[in-house]
């Protein structure tokens, strides 16, 4: 039952917003009593924390599945972007924006978690891109990673509309890739941009 509540709450939080969804709403949607929810979660904040953790795990399972497909690093970034777009397409408001605005402590905890994992992924992506000749060898990798994630997280934390956030993320992905790509990498970027849907 606990996992079912987390799954339903996560879906509702993404679609309707962390602030607006109440424990009554979740109980009503599931056809159970609010008391049943409180049996597993002492309050809404704990349920939100469990939901964001479940979302984090779900995202990373999907990231690993995409990485296992062994795309070249530029294509991999476009596949990841498509995955995020599909996951959050039902959300009108950026989930990170909602979390930062209404639950700043949970937001801070989530961000620390995400930054660690995202750093490892992007470092691996850049190392592979250099090896394959798609990214320049002469770049400062640490700064490239920092710039990219500072831009991505700033967009998601400060842009209310999920649709606008996704459009800006694509612009940042292009900006980031052009900054670190070789001529071969630029051709691959152009190919992915023209086939982006």
From TrEMBL:
<dbReference type="GO" id="GO:0003677">
    <property type="term" value="F:DNA binding"/>
</dbReference>
<keyword id="KW-0238">DNA-binding</keyword>
<feature type="DNA-binding region" description="H-T-H motif">
    <location>
        <begin position="22"/>
        <end position="41"/>
    </location>
</feature>
<dbReference type="InterPro" id="IPR001647">
    <property type="entry name" value="HTH_TetR"/>
</dbReference>
<dbReference type="InterPro" id="IPR050624">
    <property type="entry name" value="HTH-type_Tx_Regulator"/>
</dbReference>
<dbReference type="Pfam" id="PF00440">
    <property type="entry name" value="TetR_N"/>
</dbReference>
<feature type="domain" description="HTH tetR-type">
    <location>
        <begin position="1"/>
        <end position="59"/>
    </location>
</feature>
<protein>
    <submittedName>
        <fullName>Transcriptional regulator, TetR family</fullName>
    </submittedName>
</protein>
<dbReference type="InterPro" id="IPR009057">
    <property type="entry name" value="Homeodomain-like_sf"/>
</dbReference>
């Amino acid at each position: 039952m606990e996992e079912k509540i987390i799954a339903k709450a996560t879906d509702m939080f993404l679609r309707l917003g962390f602030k607006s969804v109440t424990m009554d709403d979740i109980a009503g949607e599931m056809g159970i009593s609010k008391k049943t929810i409180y049996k597993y979660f002492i309050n809404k904040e704990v349920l939100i924390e469990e939901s964001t953790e479940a979302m984090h795990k779900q995202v990373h399972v999907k990231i690993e599945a995409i990485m296992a497909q062994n795309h070249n690093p530029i294509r991999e970034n476009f596949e990841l972007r498509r995955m995020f777009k599909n996951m959050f397409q039902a959300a009108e408001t950026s989930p990170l924006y909602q979390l930062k605005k209404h639950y700043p402590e949970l937001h801070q905890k989530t961000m620390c978690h995400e930054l660690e994992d995202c750093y490892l992924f992007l470092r691996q992506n850049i190392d592979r891109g250099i090896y394959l000749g798609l990214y320049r060898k002469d770049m400062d990798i640490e700064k490239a990673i920092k710039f990219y994630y500072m831009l991505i997280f700033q967009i998601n934390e400060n842009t209310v509309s999920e649709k606008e956030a996704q459009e800006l993320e694509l612009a940042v992905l292009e900006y980031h890739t052009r900054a670190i790509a070789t001529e071969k990498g630029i051709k691959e970027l152009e190919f992915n941009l023209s086939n982006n849907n």
